[in-house]
Amino acid sequence: MKRSEYRGFTQVFRFTFLQAIFSKSLIITTAVMMLIALVAFPVISLFNKEDDNYQSPIKKVYVINETGMQNIPYADAFKDKDGYADVAFEETDKELDVLAEEISKEHAEEVVLKFELDQGSGGYMLNFYRDAESPIDDGDVDKIASEMAEWFDKYKVTVLDADADTLEMIGKVVDFSVMDSGEFLETDTHEVISYMDYNVVYAFLMVCYMVIILASNMVAAKVVEEKANRVVEYLMTAVRPMALILGKVVAMLSVCILEITLIAASGIISSKLTSALNGSDGAGLLSGFLSSDAIKNISIPNFLICIVMIALGVLIYGLLAGLFGASVSKMEDLQQGLKVYTAIILVAFFACITACEMMWTVGINGFVSVMMFIPFTSVMILPGAILIGKASVAVLAVSLVLQAVTAAVILKIVSLVYESIIVMNGNPVSVKQMVALIRRK
Amino acid sequence: MGLEVKEIVKRYGEKTVVDHLSFSMDKPGVYALLGTNGAGKTTSIRIMLGMLASDGGSVTFNGEDLTTTKVNVGYLAEERGLYPKVKLMDQMLYFASLKKVPKKEALKRIKYWTERLKLTEYFYPEPVGKKKPKPFKAEQLSKGNQQKVQLMATLISDPELIVLDEPLSGLDPVNTDLFRDIIREEASKDKYIIMSSHQMATIEEFCSDLTILNKGKTVLSGNLNEIKKSYGRVNLLLKADTDISSYIDELSLNVVEKTPGETKIRLENEGQAKVLLNRLVADDVPLVRFELTEPSLHEIFVEKVGDVNEEV
Q1: How far is A238 from chain B, CA to nearest CA, in Å?
Q2: What is the mean pLDDT of residues A66-77?
Q3: What's the average model confidence in pLDDT over A308-314?
Q4: Residues of B with CB below 8 A from A240's CB?
Q5: Is the model's pLDDT at A388 over the cut of 60?
Q6: Ramachandran category for residue A3: left, alpha or beta (phi over 0 → left; psi -120 to 50 → alpha)
Q7: Residues 6+ apart with CB under 8 A from B260
Q8: ipTM score
Q9: Residues of B in contact with A19 (CB under 8 A)
């Protein structure tokens, strides 16, 4: 594609960006979201205080210790915590499936803890299993798991008689997962994520989906608006069609990134202020809501990777939305024109929801892995997976490359079709007609 | 060298909407592109300006392919467009920036054009009392004023090639005169102007050369004066103090229009007028008016387009 094809990009970008950020609706939405982010941490802090009266319903924890460490004083995890005073620990040699079956039969207030070394990270893994019919819910197991992970993180460094290898190993992550014993008996041994991690992935999925929908719908609406108002005819005497669509997509993407950054900054300020007032650290505040891994993974490099991923995703979906938006001439036909685009994004969204559920219930299996690679879904599922530490560098690299390649291919397709359909008026241009145009070119 | 349109073709499926259109403008001036609705004028203009890919032919300006990246073009589309919810000043600055007009220069030009087009109150609203004036948006303007803003957008870059598609449609007489003056001014600045209009009087006023399209095909092309001359003076306007219908009937002349005071006849040749005049003079008929004229563009247009449609 020639450089002259993008003549006018800067002007289109600047105009669209400025019009968008000074629009009343965006200012109000961003202000409301920032306000929510600002009050979020004080509210979390209040909830955490109420948790001081929490009484765990768990009476017994069967521990299958496969770490090789001897005489671990599990009860020390709850020395100063009244809510766990009744919890007893019992190390056992029984197999997990036998124990899972036993607790499933009695529906007692008991859980199983399989304490092992994580082959992937080289750190420790606390895998909890509960009976779905027992009075214990996921939240109760999450709480005890989180407390134990936090305690063990400190305890392991007090093991002074470790050799060099052990010291390196104990420096690594401590993580936990929670699973129904019934599900465990029915499933393969894929690595599952904790309930807290599931929430993180789910929340990020929703945020990414909303960002994509918001940005691409705005692109489509702008394209149709210019077509319906006939401004496009004037613009085309100065701007190339590719610059016109790309300027809009990048402008809307920038608006979304700016919005996310402002909301995130509000959250960080709120967290710092609340922590300073409470005399605690930010991680302490978040521990009731995020797993220890997620807290550790909140970093600027990860934030930037997520932004790049979302940016490529918005580019892919934005270009498609712009293309299908250009297929109609009237605002009232927009929904009809966006039928195929809507179908694509909905299928991707529900596939991601399914993958998210699978990560929690049956583990990261083949389906989840595929979703992490498909560019239409990876944008929604990977940011959360990055945060909970379930996306390796290799997966990230391949996904980013695939996203970039897909964006380039879509850009090429759009460049073949957009120019021909942008000045067409009358009935919406069908996908069949678009394919015919691509073939002809 | 000027503008040269050579054999441009555009097809949509089986239908040819522009069929080997060719014309040229060797020197600056106003060229008319005429045709009925759906004749292919707008499509031809879009192809000329590079908005639409053609299926054949070429368009050059001063010997080079006409692209809006190389040639400063001003286009007033038939279906006018502005951003309804964007402030007038913002969109005009945007349009100017797209044409690479520096902001300072753009502001100067906007000032000039707002005064010229009597739009100052919308671009530079006066404060009401102590309140800061609220900038106007396009949707707050009347249709005529929106059209003026669009003309301003067309001319803001001081283009060398101007394309005006139905520039006077929908304007009141005062604004029609204003637009006419501006078009005349631009033409006097040695610019290449292509104008499409259904108002034949306007075309006759401004254009020296023209092409008439019908269903994508060129039915007439050339210099307007020469075209008219080729028809000869075949319109006869007659006014007499007595009834002269018997003379007209005797020569079997074709009366096109008859009002109580005047009769308009379409002749086959100037010779018929001579014969009629001789008879009237011989009989001492008191004549008030006996005027021979060339056919108007309106008549030529109707004749040409009508001919083709009848053949079809």
Answers
A1: 6
A2: 83
A3: 89
A4: 69
A5: yes
A6: alpha
A7: none
A8: 0.81
A9: 86, 90
Indicate the angle between helix axes A339-361 and A366-373, nearest 10 degrees: 140
In angstroms, the separation between the Cα of residue B273 and the nearest Cα of chain A is 51
Is pLDDT above 50 for A187? no
In this prediction, the residues of chain B whose per-residue pLDDT falls under 70 are: 307-312
What is the distance between the alpha carbons of residues B205 and A203, in angstroms, rounded to a whole number?
Answer: 69
3-state secondary structure chain B: CCEEEEEEEEEECCEEEEEEEEEEECCCEEEEEEECCCCCHHHHHHHHCCCCCCCEEEEEECCEECCCCCCCEEEECCCCCCCCCCEHHHHHHHHHHHCCCCHHHHHHHHHHHHHHCCCHHHHCCCCECCECCCCCEHHHCCHHHHHHHHHHHHHCCCCCEEEEECCCCCCCHHHHHHHHHHHHHHHHCCCEEEEECCCHHHHHHHCCEEEEEECCEEEEEEEHHHHHHHHCCCEEEEEECCCCHHHHHHCCCEEEEECCCCEEEECCCHHHHHHHHHHHHHCCCCEEEEEEECCCHHHHHHHHHHHHHHHC
Contacts of A436 in chain B (CB under 8 A): none
The structural domains of chain B, ordered by start, are 3-228 (3.40.50.300), 233-293 (3.30.70.1150)
The reported pLDDT for the residue numbered A188 is: 45
Do residues A344 and A350 lie in contact, with contact meaning Cβ atoms separated by under 8 Å?
A: no
Question: B153 and B88 in contact (C-beta within 8 Å)?
Answer: no
Task: Choose, out of B94, B150, B163, B196, the residue to mutate when testing the contact with A (most A CBs < 10 Å).
Answer: B94
**What SS3 class is residue A222?**
helix
Q: Does A423 touch chain B (CB under 8 A)?
A: yes
Mean pLDDT, range A150-173, rounded to an integer: 63
| Planar angle of CA B193, B196, B199, nearest 5 degrees | 120
What is the pLDDT confidence band of residue A294, given thresholds at 50, 70 and 90?
low
Give the number of other CB atoms < 10 A from CB of residue A380: 29
Q: Which amino acid is at B251?
A: L
More confident residue, A196 or B213: B213
Q: What is the mean pLDDT of chain A?
A: 81
Interface test with B, best of A231, A242, A423 (most B CBs within 10 A): A231
Q: In the predicted model, what is the mean pLDDT of residues A24-47? A: 86
Measured between alpha carbons, how far is residue B294 from residues A79, A163, B224, B284 in Å?
113, 112, 11, 27
